[in-house]
Amino acid sequence: MPEAAGGRKEGALGGLRLTPQRKAILAAVREGGRHPEAGEIYERVRRQLPHISLGTVYRNLAQLSEAGLVVELNIGRASRWDGQPAPHDHLICRRCGHIEDIDIGREGCDLDAIARRVSGFIIEGHRLQFEGLCPACQRRELDQSAHATDV
Ligand SMILES: [Zn+2]
Ligand SMILES: [Zn+2]
Q: Mean pLDDT throughout 107-120?
């Protein structure tokens, strides 16, 4: 990982020391399907650090979020954690809760400028959420309606 020129040293990221616990938690957030819930992160971290508590995971997630290394998404029932802190948009399945990133080429469309014009706010960013049914849930719904017409 490159050291930021003139930035903080001592293995710190965003002013936060990366302890073995935080490293493991960060890796767990980024692992596999992103956007896990805290409970899933806890299960992943426990494989490496069996004695860690759920409270410690929550506390470190909050600190990592403050340091800008992860982003808390308030979607649905539980918070989900995103290991990609750079601004990006999401697709959310209303049925199974699946979340994935989507790139709609946001560079080309200046939503921030429009929002600033109509509101007078200084816009620092935005996050779009597209909601609907993922392909797997679409298939499930089709199967169900096929069975319903069978009867
Ligand atoms: Zn789904
Ligand atoms: Zn994301």
A: 86
